[in-house]
Amino acid sequence: MLTKEYRICMPLTVEEYKIGQLYMIARHSLEQSDAGNGVEVVENKECYDEEHGKGQYTEKRIHLSSRLPYWIQAFCPKVFYIVEKGWNYYPFTITEYTCSFIPKLNITILTKFEDNAGTSDNCLCVPEEKNEERTVDFVDIAFDEVNMKHYKKEEDPKFFKSKITGRGPLVEGWRQTDKPVMCSYKLVQVSFEVWGLQTKVEDFVQRCIRDVLLLGHRQAFTWIDEWHWMSLDDVREYEHKKQEEANQKVLAEQAQPAPGPDSVD
């Protein structure tokens, strides 16, 4: 198992990010969805935990089939997806990923949000005996390089300035100088217990997760003028609408009739 703790600071408060996170996830999921690919929301309902209280449970299917390399598609099931289960007890969340096609791959992410610049040593309460297995990686939303295929200047915190809050652009050292500032602490555990492939696959998955975290948190900040006015009810309504739109796009291809005998590949 490969364990990493990512610390992603934002020029927001934890209370503000409660709205911004929901908006970003809903909008990003829709933008990444098309016929047969993307995020399908299976369940979204309230839940309760004795320790954390009332929360929101979501179950999603992340469809990937046609976005995989051709050599993987050759033996991969046509309807291929990863299951994401999330328990949101803000400011603490639990997310789990599994894949029926690759049963030995398991990903667990524990997240906690705090109003600081990433200065808490162990806010996720990692047991002392496991601390040596954990590496800490500070993700800078302004100065870490994003994959160029996802780069948009209007979503670059080095150039963005919020019209509503006046925050931005972010300059070198912004985490120590800008107010407000919060940190998303994410303990990511990736397990792929297959001899000969474990290290390579676990490292690859961690790098992919880091890329997603970097892009998503950049977007949450640079979209601030779109969500900062929203209440929790407003963003839940927006989330519900975008989930319906994403489901329609993702499931469109699966609703198509199977090709007839005269069809040409």
Automatic annotation (TrEMBL):
One of its GO terms (molecular function) is phosphatidylinositol binding. Keywords: Lipid transport, Lipid-binding, Transport. Residues 1-244 form the Phosphatidylinositol transfer protein N-terminal domain. GO terms for cellular component: cytoplasm; nucleus. Residues 243-265 are annotated as: Disordered. It holds the Pfam family IP_trans. Transmembrane segments: none annotated. Belongs to the PtdIns transfer protein family. PI transfer class IIB subfamily. This is Cytoplasmic phosphatidylinositol transfer protein 1. It comes from Aedes albopictus.
